């Protein structure tokens, strides 16, 4: 149990640190973006995985990790056509698979580490997208 708590604390620390780093970026002169329906679904599924992890609800973890992978295959996901973006998306799908697999095995520590990895991937990819879009403008 202590190991699970330690992993969850680590996950929350990393997620909070990533959020703080993204907030430290210089202000963007563009108007704030509205959350697209696909992004809203991604956030909802990600939150549901975190809830599943905290409650050790392995069915919810599996279901939402699989749903996230399916969302990553939607045409609206592919907003950039670069090799780096393709790699980022493949890595995201790999971590979603890892989370689902770990949940099926009822391995909360591995599922949590997968969630942390997925969160880092999301932040890195969104940072890449913002930077790439600024370079195009």
TrEMBL record:
Keywords: Signal. It comes from the Bacteria. Residues 1-20 form the signal peptide. The keyword Signal applies. This is Secreted protein. It comes from Novipirellula caenicola.
């Amino acid at each position: 149990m202590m190991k699970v708590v330690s992993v969850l604390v680590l996950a929350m620390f990393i997620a909070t640190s990533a959020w703080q780093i993204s907030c430290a970026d210089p202000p963007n002169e563009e108007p704030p973006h509205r959350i697209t329906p696909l992004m809203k679904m991604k956030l909802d599924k990600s939150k549901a995985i975190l809830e599943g992890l905290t409650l050790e609800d392995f069915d919810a973890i599996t279901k939402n990790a699989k749903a996230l992978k399916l969302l990553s295959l939607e045409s609206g996901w592919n907003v950039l056509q670069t090799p780096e973006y393709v790699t980022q998306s493949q890595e995201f799908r790999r971590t979603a698979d890892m989370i689902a697999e770990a949940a099926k095995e009822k391995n909360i520590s591995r599922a949590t580490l997968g969630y942390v990895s997925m969160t880092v991937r999301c932040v890195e990819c969104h940072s890449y997208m913002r930077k790439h879009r600024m370079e195009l403008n």
